[in-house]
Specification:
Its cofactor is Mg(2+). Keywords: Amino-acid biosynthesis, Aromatic amino acid biosynthesis, ATP-binding, Cytoplasm, Kinase, Magnesium, Metal-binding, Nucleotide-binding, Transferase. It holds the Pfam family SKI. Monomer. Catalyzes the specific phosphorylation of the 3-hydroxyl group of shikimic acid using ATP as a cosubstrate. With 191 residues, the chain is an alpha/beta fold. The protein has one domain: Rossmann fold, CATH 3.40.50.300. The protein is 48% helix and 13% strand. The protein is built from eight helices and five strands. The chain has a five-stranded parallel beta sheet, with helices on both faces. The radius of gyration is 16 Å and the shape is globular.
Length: 191
């Protein structure tokens, strides 16, 4: 069934707040797949901040991190957040794992934090020695360091979210339906 964002009635409570839905969470929480599922449910477009940054850079984020460092990457994320604030509305935005740190995050739209525990994230990423996902996500080459970063970020994710969605064994569509229901129950999205 084809839908249009024009058919969606938004009732965001803060004047000037963008009418986007941002999906945040630690790497491997399922942000991108949930954003795609939510787009299917609502008829809204979905974008991924990591994909947008890679399009701008013409290289992978991993390569950029190696050559320029995390601080330079965080500046790019802020630049992207500024662009979202000025140019994007009525869109679902899957964010990178550290995007929750950008200034003005909560004004970009309704922030939905996918709260997955560390074991669930490891299962999502199929983390084990020599696994391709481990190679693609260098942080997970040292599980102790990954767990430490996860523990440090967890309260910040919660603090920088309008809604918290607990991730367990649900699939992406189930999580997307939960987000849709939460937004509807709070009067933020049309029934």
């Amino acid at each position: 069934m084809e839908r249009s964002w024009k058919n969606q009635i938004w009732r965001f409570p803060v004047a000037g707040m963008k009418q986007n839905i941002l999906i945040t969470g630690f790497m491997g929480a399922g942000k991108s797949s949930v954003a795609r599922a939510l787009a299917e449910l609502t008829g809204l477009f979905a974008v991924d901040t990591d994909d947008l940054i890679e399009s701008l850079l013409h290289c992978s984020i991993k390569s950029y991190f190696v050559s320029h460092g995390e601080n330079a990457f965080r500046r790019l994320e802020q630049r992207l957040a500024n662009w979202l604030a000025s140019s994007v509305d009525h869109t679902i935005v899957a964010t990178g794992g550290g995007f929750f740190q950008v200034q003005g995050l909560m004004e970009l739209g309704q922030v939905c934090f996918l709260n997955a525990d560390f074991d669930t994230i490891c299962r999502h990423l199929h983390v084990c020695a020599g696994d391709q996902q481990t190679v693609m996500r260098p942080l997970f080459q040292n599980l102790e360091a990954a767990k430490k970063r996860f523990d440090e970020r967890l309260p910040l994710y919660r603090q920088n979210a309008h809604h918290i969605i607990t991730v367990g064994t649900q699939d992406s569509m189930d999580l997307a339906r939960q987000i849709q229901d939460i937004l509807r129950q709070n009067g933020l999205l049309a029934q």
